[in-house]
Amino acid sequence: MPKPPNPTRLLPALAALAMIALPASGCGTSSADVARGRVLFIQKCGACHTLAEAGTAAQTGPNLDHAFAAARAVGEGGDTVEGIVEAQVENPRPSTANPAVSMPADLVTGQDLQDVAAYVALYAGVPGAAPPKAPGGPGAQVFANNGCGGCHTLAAAKAGGVTGPNFDEVLPGQSAAMIEKSIVDPNAAIAKGYPPNVMPANYETLIDPAELKQLVEYLADSTAKGGSKKSKGR
Questions:
Q1: Which pairing describes strands 50-51 and 153-154: parallel, antiparallel, or unpaired?
Q2: Which of 22, 123, 158, 191 could pair with 53 as two cysteines, CB 3.0-4.6 Å apart?
Q3: Cα(181)–Cα(127) distance, rounded to whole angstroms?
Q4: CA–CA gap between residue 84 and residue 145 (Å, rounded)
Q5: CA–CA distance, 206 with 226 (Å, rounded to integer)
Q6: What is 138-232's CATH number?
Q7: What CATH number labels 32-123?
Q8: pTM over the 0.85 mark
Q9: Of residues 72, 116, 84, 106, the one with CA closest to residue 15
Q10: Spatial separation of the C-alpha atoms in residues 25 and 125, rounded to whole Å
Q11: pLDDT (tens digit, 9 = 90+) per residue, 101-142?
């Protein structure tokens, strides 16, 4: 029986990894938070990479589903993919200032890197992977696809993130224009008690204009007077 091909050579979109020797057992970690990794991936990596489960479709960097599909096809598991992701993020090759050629060094580090790597390892190249379905209409799906619930509380979405402001508290009374402004230019008006430069400032390019409108309408409707109570009762 012919020897199966080396899976690292089956990743043409990540050709730089061909020089990295990784054991088949990989570098898995039991301390990773995959849900948090999804939020971080969307925020830090989604502007450049396609990954179906994250709902991202950028083409600046490799399509991660395509890149790891071949490795999945020859039986490589999540631990190996996780190790490859960690190695590539820690040592982007070649390292240049051009994002179309090389991603920035230290894009995510420490526990953040472990969480992102574990998330990518779970879903990249998996046939049929797609964002989780969210009840509440198209705007709710945009909210879920972009990981908003990982940072914000919103009763209608059953989200309890605390990194950013509680939407049920800060959005009532705001117009659609004000809500959109807070998404596309988050440092323009910062909620009391929260530091600047925490929320990514590139959602205007990450989110399709039609989907951005759906998201704004969903947030406005969900946080209107009595809106969250109605959502709970659905």
A1: unpaired
A2: 123
A3: 37
A4: 25
A5: 31
A6: 1.10.760.10
A7: 1.10.760.10
A8: no
A9: 84
A10: 18
A11: 678 888 999 999 999 999 999 999 999 998 888 889 999 999
